[in-house]
Description:
Residues 40-302 form the Glycoside hydrolase family 29 N-terminal domain. This protein is α/β, with parallel strands linked by helices.
Amino acid sequence: MLAKPSPQQLVWQEFELGMFCHFGMNTFCNQEWGEGTDSPELFNPEQFDALQWVRTAKRAGFKYLVLTAKHHDGFCLWPTRTTDYSVKSSPWKDGNGDVVREVADACREEGLKFGLYLSPWDRHEPCYPDKEAYDDFYAEQLTELLTGYGPLVEVWFDGAGSQGREYDWTRIIGLVDKYQPDAMVFNMGRPTIRWVGNEDGVAPYPCWNTATTARESMFTSDMLTWMEGTPAWVPAECDVPIRKRHWFWHPDDEASLRSLEEVVELYYRSVGHGATLLLNVSPDNRGLLPDVDVTRVIEFGDEIRRRFGQSIGQTNGEGNELLLTLERIQPVNHVIIMEDIAQGERVREYVLEAYSQGDWKELARGSAIGHKKIDRFDTIETDLLRVNFLSSVEKPLIRSLAAYRVE
């Protein structure tokens, strides 16, 4: 039987762009992986402004934001009952602050979906070596987050540091099912979305929406064994930092900021391959997104809208051939094809052609289409485009075939 997405997966795949915010103790210690020994006294983002983060994401066209509520160092950005290693032991707001609350509220105010990252690996918690005790500890932390901050669009389980460790995934996924049944589950336990397998922001092509395995982390070639009941439809999310070397903010690191051209290329190779792009933009030790990062993110959003905000022709249809007639002969150099994935991913091979100077000329050829496939090619003058679906598992159902001229 042809795999099909759930209603929640369909909604999530429409988002296409999410912002990741790595923020925590590492932000104040010039490090990526803390050992859980840094003093909470160091955490003090005196100009913290969650609305600045969220409004930047919204202005750039991002549809959801994922926050690292707890990274591997175990420091919690909410005043958890499970440990004193949290914001309540910091000088920020005299120990009365709650980063998760403020970001959740800002997302709600601005209309962005909100997701949370909760590292299973915890380098601070003394009970971590005791499997049963830590399973209880982690379940309590997760329950606090699932029940205290409104609807969540995604729960992000990072496999880093957990090689060889067995967590109580039946219990963990049961909590998500109970309290946040519409949330996407990232890559572990019984996922509904999978890690693309790299931190480059690139979905290898073809990137099918069906999968039975995924890599556990960057630090092992091991493949995860997912729980029974994992759906056959498990679309990919591509996570990547906007600063090439780091997920957390570091001082004097602006030279590693990706250029506009580099970030746009990530879009082509993630969203343009049918996946979703989760772009990490890290707040600094003031509690603000750095100005240069904000500028780059907004430039990126503006450029994507400039390129693809308005087509020069669009159609839809079904069957083994689809024609797109333009109003006049004009330059074309991009085509976007989208399947009606609610009915499954049907196309297995296609060829895109343009009628020019009395003959059909091949522009692109591919396999997977799925949610979206962006084909770019040398500019051609035409008023007629054709897609032939050379192989499919059932009759192709094309939600959109659209042409663009990108200068």
